[in-house]
Design a protein that fits this description.
Order of helices and strands of chain B: HHHHHHHHHHHHHHHHHHHHHH
Radius of gyration of chain B: 22 Å
Number of helices of chain A: 4
Distance between the termini of chain B: 49 Å
Number of helices of chain B: 22
Radius of gyration of chain A: 19 Å
Number of strands of chain B: 0
Number of strands of chain A: 0
Largest sheet of chain B: none
Distance between the termini of chain A: 36 Å
Structural class of chain B: mainly alpha
Helix content of chain A: 55-70%
Largest sheet of chain A: none
Strand content of chain B: under 5%
Helix content of chain B: over 70%
Shape of chain A: elongated
Oligomer: heterodimer
Amino acid sequence: MLGQITDRLSQSAALLACVILVCMVLLILLEIILRSAFSSSTYVLDEFVGYGVAAMTFLSFAAALKDGVFIRVELVLGRLAPAPRRIIEVISCLLGGGLFVILTYHFGKLVFRNFDHHVVSNSIAAIPLWIPQSFVLVGLVLLILQFISLAFQIAMGAPFKGHDGISGGGGHG
Amino acid sequence: MDEIGATLIVLCLIFLFLGSGIWVFVGLILVSFTVQFFVLDFPLVRIGSIASKIMLRSASSWELAAIPMFIWMGDIIFRTDISQRLFNGLAPLVARIPGRLLHVNIVGCTLFAAVSGSSTATTATVGRISLEELSKRKYDPLLSVGSLAGAGSLGLLIPPSIVMIVYGILAEVSIVSLFAAGVLPGLMVALLYSTYIALRAKFDPKIAAQMATQERLPIRVADFLNLLPIVILIGVVLGAIYSGIATPSEAAAIGVLAALIIAGVTKQVTLELFTDSLVSAVKMSAMVISLVIAAALLSTTMGYLHLPQSVATMIGGLDLSPYALMAVLALFYVLLGLFLEGISITVMSLPITLPLVVQAGFDPMWFGVFLILMVELATITPPVGFNLFVLQGLTDMPISRVAKASLPFFLLLCLGVVLLTAFPQIALWLPNLIRGSA
């Protein structure tokens, strides 16, 4: 149940990340057209694309974790008997979750401070910083949920998932 | 804390965490946290607040935007009929060289590498069609698989390259120059591979006998038209960068548009292709950027420990000659490459190795190319080598046999590293030329 909701949310966040990527491509193309044809500029390209990359990345984290896209060294893990492997994988999930609870707590404080103090970006657009940062925050919270849900699933005996980083047009080495 | 102790602690922690099979980016962040908490005695509040700021800053970068866009572009092309086109277009052409269709692997990978930033995508794209066609024609399986493993790794060296973008950001080297620096070494490695295949075809009687039975395909213009999409895409992306119209991120956006137009003109754009490539691209780039974030954190932590300076002093005290230093580093990278993939290797080692190399008088741009060759080696060394995994999947050969097939190409790549070190101009000539004319 929790797993299903988390998966659905992760998937939706990944779709939002897709929309953000499309917007980044469009914004860059717009900038190129403005610059070459009208000697003008959007004046916000670097700033907005920077927000976009961060938002896109964090919103995709939960889905990437769920689908086993993150790289891991499975050399030892793959050779363990199922029982000890299950224990280690659950500990990994809990460590990951715990780590991101600390990060999310501090990042959340930062976002709320920026919201309270109306901190805006140091640029012509003067964007309130909490807006792009809340996408990151949402991604972080979903990642924690996904860690917990994964820990539950593995503890309850779900099959292990290797990473499928080798299929598709992957970007890693 | 003495430096040897600190270095050992960090190394042990990295081995412990990564060896446990935890996700690499989580492992590297855990190493940072553990060191800051136990070794540096930072309070948890300080660790968390430093980390959350570094995390945001390292992920909000204009340069990073090139990563998701190049991945997306490659993914769109990957999902079209490019594999078949590469084979049909190249087969008649290379059938005239000794070694014949085996060169499809080399030339095909070299071309696809110029629209893709990843070695696994390059290997999978070319291998999807060529392996079957080669085995239908009774080519030596070891040579087919090995040449593909070796040539597929060129995806990292020939621009655009995701690892290169990561290196450029971390080492603060111009990505445009790095891309240019990868071109000639990439072609050199391809030439080494092709020469080896030709020599084997001429002088290995078993393989020569297989070749003799091959029919000669006629050259027709229609075959070359198959190569048009990929050539146009290469021209658009590299043209945009080197004519000075676009930065790498902008060229990547243009590349996405061009890839969609090409897929559209050849009537292959479907909603499915669009969304599937997009979803896969955001997840893959999240993985890559997660490593960039973890690297930023690890590098800060190592900085607090003064680890880079300590190691540099320590190595400096050994009085190694620059070549001896590079030999030690090469060995170190080959060892890392046995167990890790390229971006992890790059982000983990760079805070330590880059200052060393610069101190020894090497150009950071040159070192980028050197490092990427080392990472290419890592993709074809067992037990963990992603190109080997791809080929295992494509051929059902056991990993040991794929590794055996790749061994000659591993050695050729090592020869490439030696040549690059002896003649750094192979990497530096083109970027200097471009900078000079700009």
